[in-house]
UniProtKB/TrEMBL annotation:
One Pfam family matching this protein: Cullin
PANTHER family: CULLIN
Recorded superkingdom: Eukaryota
The name this protein goes by in its record: Cullin N-terminal domain-containing protein
Family per similarity comment: Belongs to the cullin family.
UniProt lineage: Eukaryota, Viridiplantae, Streptophyta, Embryophyta, Tracheophyta
A GO MF label: ubiquitin protein ligase binding
GO annotation terms (biological process): ubiquitin-dependent protein catabolic process
SUPFAM superfamilies (alphabetical): Cullin repeat-like (SSF74788)
Cullin N-terminal domain boundaries: 25-165
Length: 229
């Protein structure tokens, strides 16, 4: 029905009316999704991701932009309308989850990965949303660890902090060295076994290469190196 409405000619062409109704429905849908962020960041992010997939899978959405609507009414403009209203809260919710993980809480790793995929998908417009989100993540990480260091220095002296940090670095080096050492030893033993097998094989080849092809030698060869069954 929607496709038929768009394919009609004047005075029965209703593309603009359908466009306005679709735009109004989209704005109402965005407003309903926005209400979730105040209750649950996880629920908000999940709903945004589902909502975005539904938009792009919508046949109505595809028909809208296959119609002869003049600029700026394009798919990019729709992306901009959705992102301008949702991306700010979406970033806040994602950063909230990241901070929860830093504080030791269990979060859905796949959900955070999908957030990055979401910003990568919409990053082809006028605004590089993926780049701005990564910048926001870096800024938040810098603020978080700066505050963490300040809190540590308030509880312990600077010398104790340096000593503690040095101890951690030393422990990491010990662990790294032990893991590398054990792995290297396993590889060395494996190489020794392989080298030994190659040496034995080459020694056998050199012995049999010097043997004559007389009848006795053939029997001797078959006795010394029987065929596997």
């Amino acid at each position: 029905m929607l496709s038929t409405s768009y394919s009609q000619r004047q005075p029965y062409e209703y593309s603009w009316q359908l466009y306005e109704r679709y735009k109004m429905a989209l704005e109402e849908s965005i407003a309903s999704v926005m209400q979730i962020v105040f209750y649950s960041p996880v629920g908000f992010i999940s709903n945004i991701l589902i909502y975005w997939v539904e938009i792009w899978r919508s046949n109505a959405f595809n028909i809208l932009f296959s119609a002869s609507l003049p600029p700026p009414f394009t798919a990019t403009e729709y992306i901009g309308m959705v992102c301008s209203k949702l991306c700010g809260s979406f970033k806040d919710a994602a950063i909230s989850l990241i901070n929860q993980e830093r504080n030791g809480k269990q979060v859905q790793q796949d959900l955070l990965k999908n957030v990055l995929n979401f910003f990568a998908d919409i990053g082809e417009g006028k605004i590089d949303y993926c780049k701005t989100f990564k910048q926001r993540m870096l800024e938040d990480a810098a603020d978080y660890y700066s505050q963490l260091v300040s809190e540590l220095l308030c509880c312990i002296s600077y010398a104790e902090y340096i000593q503690k940090q040095a101890s951690l670095d030393k422990l990491l080096e010990i662990v790294k060295w032990k893991l590398i050492g054990e792995t290297a030893q396993v590889l060395i033993e494996k190489q020794k076994v392989e080298s030994c097998d190659i040496a034995n094989y080459q020694d056998l080849l050199s012995k049999y290469a010097d043997m004559s092809l007389e009848e006795g030698s053939s029997v001797s060869l078959s006795n010394q190196w029987p065929m596997r069954r």
